[in-house]
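Quick one:
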Amino acid sequence: MPVHGTHNAVPDDRNDNILIYVNGELVPRNAAKISVFDSGYLVGDGIWEALRLHEDVLVFLDEHLNRLWQGAVTIGMKMNMTREELTGKLWQTLRANNMHDGVHVRFMVTRGTKKTPSQDPRLVLSGPNLVIIPEYKQASSDSRNRGVTLFTSTIRRGSPDYLDPRLNCHSKLHEVMALVQAIEAGADEALMLDIHGFVATCNATNFFMVKNGEVWTSTGQYCMNGITRGKIIKVSNENGIPCYQKNFSLFDVYGADEAFVTGTFGGLTPVIKVDGRVIGDGKPGALMEKLSALYEAEVHRAVLAAKEAQQS
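Output:
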């Protein structure tokens, strides 16, 4: 039975034969390996990004690289490569696979390989380790048409003083635990509150609700630094749609007219139920559909701008 959720993808047999970049080598999927002494494997010491290849353009590449480099600075990890060099490795991998469109690319950078299992970054022998996984991935229309259900986890989004939620790091165990709770409760994904009890994010996506023609999302203090989230706020402001980053609680969510989540892979996905309460009329709402169209137009503009820059 296929998994239902915001990362539900249409099966594509082409992915069986993709080449994966591992520290300068391109290897078949079933041969892609990294050391058991890798920092990411040992202690979750690494950062990552994921973006879309659309019509030969890596969409919002600069924003993703900004977030990656900010993450590296935050955890005190030397990248040992420039943004241009990393971009070149991404394109090397895509060209080796003859990929042009409909591709989701995840790239991961860990501190390196250690001489013994330990948290101590001084024990790294090499590094950083870079892995690039490109896959043909199209979001399933089933998720978009049916929407997803959420369950509010007891696991909170952390305070910025011990693990800032904006850090796109490999340490995702608290989010996995939240998702496990949601699945065991019969939902598709988890809704997570901040340390004050206000709505923060979902386990892997950012949350929005609609009330009386207004779009609400969390303040940003306890949510993921989502690229798609930022674009939704941007297109709302540009098109006269009231959009507020504010504190709100489950009281507000249960009475919402619409709700949806955002992410790089799925774009906008409707939320039809939270903790057993049907949201609105239990199907994708009109304002979400409008915002989805505005977001796709923003993607299209980014693609055209990138192509024009390449030609100039």
